[in-house]
Design goal:
mainly alpha; flat
Length: 154
């Protein structure tokens, strides 16, 4: 029986993997995805519903809207978040739409947090991990110059 040889290729570089991913058939970028992204993220932060109580009075109940995420948007298109990131790198219009979507996402997070619709720990965690916010405690950051302390009044 003749020996079979098979070509084994090494790992592809990130650049070629991203460009191949962005060009996969059936999942190609389309300019209308910019408008779809913004429409997906442009939702009211909360809903107010009237609830009829047993005594006949009406109470207003506020409920946070589902926080739109890039994972959910990707799923709605049938792609992955990494595909969206590739489109951001390759298409300036989509990158701009993604920035606006993050701003909308941040506004929903702020509005619901201030109104008590999200727990504070969820809001902090989400702001840091999804929106890239920080609480100002930047460990490891050093001052640009020497610390100067002046004593006055002596």
């Amino acid at each position: 029986m003749p020996a079979r040889s098979s070509a084994v290729s090494g790992p592809k570089s990130k650049k070629s993997a991203v460009s191949a991913s962005a060009k996969a058939p059936g999942l190609a970028y389309r300019p209308e995805y910019c408008a779809r992204l913004l429409a997906f993220f442009d939702v009211p932060p909360f809903k107010v519903t009237e609830v009829l109580k047993k005594d006949g009075s009406v109470s207003l109940v506020e409920t946070a809207s589902e926080l739109p995420t890039f994972a959910a948007f990707a799923r709605s298109l049938g792609v992955t978040q990494s595909r969206l990131m590739a489109w951001e790198k390759a298409h300036p219009a989509f990158a701009e739409a993604a920035k606006k979507a993050r701003d909308l996402q941040g506004d929903i997070l702020i509005q619901n947090s201030l109104r008590g619709n999200y727990s504070s720990s969820f809001a902090v965690f989400t702001a840091k991990n999804i929106l890239g916010w920080s609480d100002g405690k930047e460990e490891g950051k050093k001052a640009d110059g020497p610390l100067l302390v002046r004593w006055e009044g002596q």
